[in-house]
């Protein structure tokens, strides 16, 4: 690679992305440099761009759904080689010494290193990351398919596989967007009796094509009643970032059913203690996943028919692509490519 690289940076909170030249970074001890081939644009990137997270510094190079190849290794890195295909997701490294890390729960590290927040991310031709953040991309996935799995994919995959649901159980996916379209596919691939919940009858055909056996139009019926008519959901995976929509599924949970929240919203859920007590129901959130989780997500995906539905744009069109993601028009994940 040349000694310089192009990046898409935001200079001030809420600003536009601009393409600028930066010096090509050298990997330090325990780090690798990645020649970026593709980087997904996640809804969380908007929070970084707006400066809503503590410690975000500008000018900012965001991007935490990265796929590419190692092109340089820092001192002490073992197990990896130049040319290896790798991904880096929301999990971009951990401190190793906080209470969570000492318990082996790395994704809840008190100082979790998220690319684009802790260090420059993947809206660039190259980036440096800790070797501990790397996940190996299997041959069955292209870079544009692998990139969204580093955050969106692993979040959905991990959330579903850590529930109490077993093949044959009724599992509902609330929302059919960037997370939800993957959620329906993974739920079907896991053997769940899959329900898709979304707004409007026009989304039913897509939901069934993705693997759902049932579709609930939340604008035409009471969601909880529809779920009860199907026998009650063992799990509702809430991917839509609507606290109100999440709250309206609780009475549709089967006894000991789980509402698993992964759609980010700052609004409060409206749930009474009686709704939880009488059915022994639970509500809990689920974070993303470690590098190992990302690798397992990609391996499963490569072996299955699950694939993210993506729209691609070249790095130089980062601003337009970001705004398309933010408008909700993308179907369903925007991915920047470098032409590498």
Automatic annotation (TrEMBL):
Family the entry assigns: Belongs to the zinc-containing alcohol dehydrogenase family.
Record Pfam families: ADH_N, ADH_zinc_N
Source organism superkingdom: Bacteria
SUPFAM superfamilies, sorted: GroES-like (SSF50129), NAD(P)-binding Rossmann-fold domains (SSF51735)
Protein name in the entry: alcohol dehydrogenase
CDD domains given in the database record: CAD_like (cd08296)
Enoyl reductase (ER) domain sequence ranges: 14-336
PANTHER family: ALCOHOL DEHYDROGENASE 1-RELATED, ALCOHOL DEHYDROGENASE-LIKE N-TERMINAL DOMAIN-CONTAINING PROTEIN
InterPro entries per UniProt: ADH-like_C (IPR013149), ADH-like_N (IPR013154), ADH_Zn_CS (IPR002328), ER (IPR020843), GroES-like_sf (IPR011032), NAD(P)-bd_dom_sf (IPR036291)
Keywords: Metal-binding, Oxidoreductase, Zinc
Keyword Membrane recorded: no
Necessary cofactors: Zn(2+)
Gene3D superfamilies: Medium-chain alcohol dehydrogenases, catalytic domain (3.90.180.10), NAD(P)-binding Rossmann-like Domain (3.40.50.720)
